[in-house]
Amino acid sequence: MPRTERPVQGTQPQSYKIPPRVPHTQRTSAVFLNNPPQRQGGQLSRRDLKNLVRNLGAASRPSQRNLALKTFKALCTDGDAASLASIAAGAIPPLVQLLGSGSAAQVQADASSALMDLALNAEIAATIAAAGAIPLLVQLMLGSGTVPGVIGLENAIGTLKFLAENAEAAVQVIAAGFIPALVHLLVRGSLTEVLVNAAGALWSLIQKDDDQKHENIDAIAAAGAIPPLVRLLGPGSDEATSSAAAYTLQALGHSNDPNRAAIAAASASANLLREMAGLSFD
Question: Does the N-terminal or the C-terminal CB of the chain have fewer CB atoms within 10 Å?
């Protein structure tokens, strides 16, 4: 399965407008939206960094925090590597705190989106893991069915997938229950975006070039992923979902006789032998 830079997710706002007559206490974050923060040597100035991190904190007013989140997301999208590195150390702890159950679903979605962008950087990924984000992201995968909740779920999958590419963080991701959570989504999920992201994340865990790959394959099979993946090949699935499931099944069955047998048994049980005929495990 070709690697995508970001998982499929809902539409995000493309631009931000400052509300009229912004109160003074909100001005720092609001001004960021239309005017780039002042930089020193290619990095965010200390004053702007301090204000941004402060406004990301849970103690800030919701309006301040929302503006800071939008600003931070814009910086993650458009900022240079030096700027991201300079703000990551201060911004990650409050972003992780916003993933908790006390935050609104939209806040969780915005915070997880920012963390997903940061997790693409290997060094920052280790910082995210050390800040305690992994258990909260797994919980977010199993959370609300509202629209912001689903977006947060997709962001959580993407963040954990990128974290799993970091050798140190990968152990924590697996230990936190990432694989069982993905299988749960395959069984319970109904939205194409969720199913494709869950199957794709399982596939990515099998593409590693170290001993962890074989451990992941065994863990995925043991978690019961094969039957729901086989069912996603059925006539009720769209092309994107069935394609993601097929890639993952092929990877699970490659040079693995027990998994091939399990796939064949699940196919027979679901009357999907014809759909399985196109899979190649070589």
Answer: C
Q: pLDDT for 216-252, tens place per residue?
A: 999 999 999 999 999 998 888 889 999 999 999 999 9
Q: How far is CA 213 from CA 170, 203, 282, in A?
A: 11, 10, 17
Backbone angles phi, psi at 39, to 5 degrees: -115, 150
Rounded CA-CA distance 152/150 in Å is 5
Pairing mode, strands 43-44 and 39-40: antiparallel
Determine the longest span between alpha carbons in the chain, in angstroms: 67
Q: Is 267 exposed, middle or buried (CB count within 10 Å of its CB: 0-12, 13-18, 19+)?
A: buried
Tell me the per-residue pLDDT of 249-264, one tens digit each, with 9 for 90 and over.
Answer: 999 998 899 999 999 9
Cα distance between residue 142 and residue 177, in whole Å: 11
HEC profile for 77-113?
A: HHCCHHHHHHHHHHHHHHHHHCCCCCCCHHHHHHHHH
Say if residues 250 and 240 touch (Cβ distance below 8 Å).
Answer: no
DSSP letters, 172-228, are HHHHTTHHHHHHHHHHH--SHHHHHHHHHHHHHHT--SSHHHHHHHHHHHHTT-HHH
Q: Which residues contact 223 (CB under 8 A, 6 or more apart)?
A: 179, 180, 183
Burial of 273 from C-beta contacts in 10 A (0-12 / 13-18 / 19+): exposed
Instruction: Count CB atoms within 10 A of the CB of residue 237.
Output: 18
CA 63 remoteness from chain centre: 25
Rounding to the nearest 10 degrees, give the CA dihedral for residues 256, 262, 263, 267: 160
**pTM for the whole structure:** 0.78
Q: Which of 105, 167, 179, 164 has its CA nearest to residue 133?
A: 164
User: What is the rounded distance in angstroms from the CA atom of residue 112 to the CA atom of residue 118?
Assistant: 10
